[in-house]
Design brief:
Elements lengths: L22 H7 L7 E7 L2 E6 H11 L9 H25 L6 H12 L2
GO molecular function: DNA binding
InterPro entries: SpoVT-AbrB_dom, SpoVT-AbrB_sf
Pfam families: MazE_antitoxin (PF04014)
Length: 116
């Protein structure tokens, strides 16, 4: 950072709406020739310039750390596995029950009641 960090430096908008960032600002911000920047309008008369790398770092810094906590996808998968286990256990109980008969017997009984 140079001596302009945290200070205001005025410059003008020139012909065709163009402006040139003063060298002190470019140096303080780390802008060199070819640096890709993003301009964000913050409101009337306010613009923020950031390098693409700075935006990327800011976005990733705000993202939750996957190692620190479970994410919602993991929670949903765990609940789904629990549901499948309950459903499978119920199916095993039904098939092992002597009064339930096999599915073929139940199907035949249903067809007989329908007259088919």
């Amino acid at each position: 950072m140079s001596d302009v960090a945290g200070q205001a430096v005025a410059f003008h908008i020139g012909p065709k709406g163009r402006s040139v960032l003063p060298v002190a600002i470019r140096r303080a911000a780390g802008f060199v020739e070819g640096t890709e920047v993003v301009a964000v309008v913050l409101g009337e008369g306010r613009v923020l310039l950031e390098t693409v790398d700075a935006v990327r770092q800011r976005v990733w810094a705000g993202a939750p750390d996957p190692a620190a906590a479970d994410d919602s996808t993991t929670d949903v998968r765990r609940m789904r596995e629990d549901d499948v286990a309950v459903s499978d256990a119920a199916a095993v109980r039904r098939s092992a029950s002597p009064e339930s008969g096999g599915s073929d017997d139940r199907g035949a009984a249903l067809l007989a009641r329908l007259g088919l």
